[in-house]
Structures are given as C-alpha cells and as structure tokens.
Amino acid sequence: MDIEIDITNTQLETQRLILRPWKESDLCDFFEYASVDGVGEMAGWKHHESVEVSREILQSFMADKNVFAIVYKENSKVIGSLGLHTSWANGDMNYNHLKLKEIGYVLSKSYWGQGLMPEAVNGALRFCFDTVGLDAVTIGHFAYNNQSRRVIEKCGFEFVKQCEYHVKQLQKDVIDMQYIMSRDRWNSYRIAESRS
Ligand SMILES: CC(C)(COP(=O)(O)OP(=O)(O)OC[C@H]1O[C@@H](n2cnc3c(N)ncnc32)[C@H](O)[C@@H]1OP(=O)(O)O)[C@@H](O)C(=O)NCCC(=O)NCCS
Questions:
Q1: Which of 41, 63, 138, 160 is most deeply buried (CB count within 10 A of its CB)?
Q2: Which pLDDT tens digit goes with each residue over 65-109?
C-alpha cells in the first residue's frame, strides 16, 4: 500500500552527505549534473537540454515533497537526488498489504565510484524504517545498468523479479530488475554491519 510522504522538515545526515528538501537556489547545481548526457538516461529520463527543463523538474520536486537533494558536505554542492516514490510492489499481491515506498536516485557523474550512493541509500533506508515506519522499501534498475545493480547489491536488497516496460521519454523497451528490502532484512543487515 502506498504511503504519503512529506519530507518538508526532514534532513538526513550520513558521513559525507546531507539529504534535504530541494530549494530554488539549487537550480545551477541541478542543471550542472542533469544536463550531462548519459546520466539521466540510465534512470529513464533524457538529460536536460536547457536550464528551463531543470527549473520545471525542480519545481515538481519541491511540490511533490518526496525527493531529497543530495548535498556533498565537503563543498556544500547538490550532487544528486534520491526520491521516495510509489512502489512497483503495490501491484503485486504478495506485497500490496505492506506499507511501501520505492527509492530512485541519480548522482552527478563527477562523483561516481566513491560509494556515495550506497551511503545515501542506507541513510534513506534508516529514515524509511525508523521514522516513517515502512514495512518494506523497493528499488529497481534497467537490466543493463550495472552501476545501479552494484549499489542495490551492496545495500543488501533481495531480487524479486524482472519485468519489461516501455520508457516513453527514451522511446525504448527496457527490462527492469526489481528488488525489495523488508524491515526484517534491514534489521539483520544493520546488526551484521554493527558487528563488522
Ligand atoms: C548508479 C549510481 C547512482 C551509482 O552511484 P555511486 O555512488 O557511483 O555508486 P558506487 O560508488 O557504489 O559505484 C557503483 C558501481 O559503479 C561502477 N562505477 C564506479 N565508478 C564508475 C565510473 N566512474 N564509471 C562507470 N562505472 C563506475 C562500479 O562498478 C561500482 O561498483 P563496485 O563498487 O562493485 O566497483 C551512479 O552511477 C549514477 O547516478 N548513475 C546514473 C543514474 C542511474 O543509473 N540511476 C539509477 C537508476 S536505477
């Protein structure tokens, strides 16, 4: 079952990152990473060809109140986004009785490969289970997106199934790999991490 989320007064902190609501003043940073060809495309949207496109999307992030800006503490720049969206599992009889959200994310290409998104996802999972009280969090990646697959594996999600669908913005059919993290699985991960 879908849960209403409002992150208006929420700020999450991890070792290197702050996740907070978007602000109008984030426009330049947003356009800087969202205009790079091949970044958004891996997540299902076309890179932004003008700052006006970024402005419109930023307005929707602020209105929807369910997408965090990811701020790199070291330079205070917004370097990505992490959203809590409606989950594919709401349409699955095995899961639709659970309180669910789906994580989606993008990181500026200049910051890839430092484990920043796994860090952001872990912060978001903590928020989803400890503060929001969700039963499970889902996530997915296009079959060919190995970078996102690695983030999902490293965070400990369990693979559930794959499904094919059409991505309108990119005008192509993709295979989406779908995963879930239950509250129990998250707790056992957390215990294992605290021991290591
Ligand atoms: C997916 C994404 C968020 C990963 O973030 P990240 O902080 O770089 O994640 P990690 O540092 O854990 O790296 C994940 C994998 O990316 C690969 N990778 C790392 N640096 C890379 C680089 N510069 N170029 C290509 N791949 C790279 C590695 O395979 C790494 O896995 P490993 O740790 O097993 O070696 C980021 O690549 C991204 O924003 N991609 C475009 C948008 C996207 O795919 N969104 C997800 C849609 S489902």
A1: 138
A2: 999 999 999 999 999 999 999 999 999 999 999 999 999 999 999
The answer, yes or no, to whether any atom of ligand 1 lies below 6 A from the CB of 145, is: yes
Q: What's this model's pTM, rounded to 2 decimal places?
A: 0.97
Per-residue exposure over 132-167, b if at least 16 CB sit within 10 Å of its own CB, e if not = bebbbbbbbbbeebeebbebbeebbbeebeeeeeeb
Cβ–ligand 1 distance for 180 under 6 Å, the answer no
Distance 97 CA to ligand 1 centre (A): 32
pLDDT digit string (tens) for 131-160?
999 999 999 999 999 999 999 999 999 999
Tokens of 29: 């940073």
